[in-house]
Amino acid sequence: MTQNTVSKVGTMVFWTLVLGALVAVIALVTHESLKAGAARGADPGDPKRAQRGRAVYDTHCAVCHGAQLEGQANWGTRLPNGRMPAPPHDASGHTWHHPDAVLFGITKHGLVPGKYAPPGYQSDMPAFGGTLSDDDIWAVLAYIKSRWPGEIQRRQLEIDRNARAPR
Q1: Is 132 left (phi over 0), alpha (psi -120 to 50) or beta?
Q2: Helix axes 134-146, 47-60, angle to 10 degrees
Q3: Contacts of 72 (CB under 8 A, 6+ apart)
């Protein structure tokens, strides 16, 4: 190899490493920013966000999950088609047992079998990713969480923190 070829290869390797490092830093900053944005987005203590979330919930969610977040009748019993009725989102249901990222994912993508539901699971829960913006989804979650008693909010916050903790 000539000195010129070695120099060109060295320069290419250098810029490849610089570019790779830059991509890694951007990915890390974006990931941390999304985590922080998610935490603020589902904040039940933000009255404007919760109010906006209520309007979105009333329009898109209440028809199945109930105007008072009560869910459908007999929500714990399978329907004749094998699917489950819509569960409540109030403190009597299991919504608060999940971290925010899971609640967001279910709302945006639906109950994806193998990811948010057992393999082969079928659900009437639609994916709202094509209907609602991410901000609308976070606002709905803020509204739902704002309706839980303080103790349930604290327990769900702990579940969410544990899910976010580095492993």
Answers
A1: beta
A2: 100
A3: 64, 65, 66, 85, 86, 87
What is the Cα–Cα distance from 126 to 64, expressed in whole angstroms? 11
Q: What is the pLDDT of residues 113-136, one digit of tens each?
A: 999 999 999 899 999 999 999 999
Evaluate whether 46 touches 142 at the Cβ level (below 8 Å).
yes
Q: Got the DSSP string for 28-48?
A: HHHHHHHHHHHHHHT-TT-HH
As a whole number of angstroms, the distance between CA 127 and CA 97 comes to 20
Contact between 100 and 32 under an 8 Å Cβ cutoff? The reply is: no
Interatomic CA distance for residues 42 and 1, integer angstroms:
59
Q: Can you give the pTM of this predicted structure?
A: 0.76
Residue with tokens 């830059």: 22
Which uninterrupted H or E stretch holds 58? helix 47-60
